[in-house]
Amino acid sequence: MVRCQHQLMEILDVKSINKCFVFILPSRSGSVSNLDLDNCGLRGTLHNLNFSSLPNLLTLNLYNNSLYGTIPINIEIGLLTSLNDLQLAINSLTGPIPPSHRLGTNNLTGPIPHSIGNLRNLTTLYLYENKLSGSIPQEIGLLTSLNDLELRTNSLTGPIPPSIGNLRNLTTLYLFENELSGSIPQEIGLLTSLNDLKLETNSLTSSIPPSIET
């Protein structure tokens, strides 16, 4: 694991405000599996970093820094094929959302991509407090390892997809403060592990299945 410590990395190029951080990973960077840089006061864009040298990366944690700009394509599943935990929440990232997770409290726009269904190993998907629009894709139901799904406080529209009933390991489902409409799918009643469900501040009709209410 690489943490925010001087003995494990060197911070370079702090003179330019547009390129405030570049760090050098250990020479055997291909063996790094966890990169933990949360709350480090990092500034700059993710385009400054070369993640292609980290083929075995499982966790990338840049939570609560001062990152801005768009999320580059190389953070997606294309190059970091082993990645199962990406945390970029509480930054100032903008632009469309890539298929990743823990991107809450940014300024991401556009729809949730259908390719989200490719991330079969995800256990958490945090996209809350962004500016996402469009419908929740049916492919969300392919993420059968999910425990927590938080899409709250966006501008998502349309119905809740029935495929959400496939997420049998789900314990938390937050869809409140969106523009969702239509009936609450009965398939939500299949989520027998669910213990925290919030759907308020939408335009949903029908009632929550009794199996969830009890």
How would you describe this structure to a colleague?
- The structure is a single chain.
- With 214 residues, this protein is mainly beta.
- It has one helix and 17 strands.
- The chain has a single domain, classed as Leucine-rich repeat, LRR (right-handed beta-alpha superhelix).
- 2% of the residues lie in helices and 27% in strands.
- The N terminus is likely disordered.
- Its EC number is 2.7.11.1.
- It is an enzyme of class 2 (transferase).
- It is found in: Cell membrane.
What's a quick, concise take on this entry?
It is a single-pass type I membrane protein. It contains 1 helix and 17 strands. It is mainly β and 214 residues long.
Question: What brief labels describe this structure?
Answer:
214 residues; disordered N terminus; cell membrane; ATP binding; four-stranded parallel sheet; mainly beta; 17 strands; eight-stranded parallel sheet; transmembrane helix; 1 helix; Leucine-rich repeat, LRR (right-handed beta-alpha superhelix)
Taking all Cα atoms into account, the compactness measure Rg is 18 Å
Which class do the helix and strand fractions yield?
Answer: mainly beta
Q: What is the CA-CA span between the terminal residues?
A: 42 Å
The percentage helix is under 10%
Let me know the largest β-sheet.
8 strands, parallel
The level 1 CATH classification is: Alpha Beta
Strand order of the largest sheet: 4-6-8-9-11-13-15-17
Can you write the helix and strand succession as a string? Answer: EEEEEEEEEEEEEEEEEH
Number of helices: 1
Show unreliable segments.
Answer: 1-28
Basic shape: globular
CATH superfamily: Ribonuclease Inhibitor
Mean pLDDT: 76
Strand tally, please? 17
Q: How many discrete structural domains? A: 1
CATH architecture: Alpha-Beta Horseshoe
Quote the CATH topology.
Leucine-rich repeat, LRR (right-handed beta-alpha superhelix)
The proportion of strand residues reads 25-35%
Protein name: non-specific serine/threonine protein kinase
Enzyme class: transferase
Keywords: ATP-binding, Cell membrane, Glycoprotein, Kinase, Leucine-rich repeat, Membrane, Nucleotide-binding, Phosphoprotein, Receptor, Repeat, Signal, Transferase, Transmembrane, Transmembrane helix
Pfam family, one: LRR_1
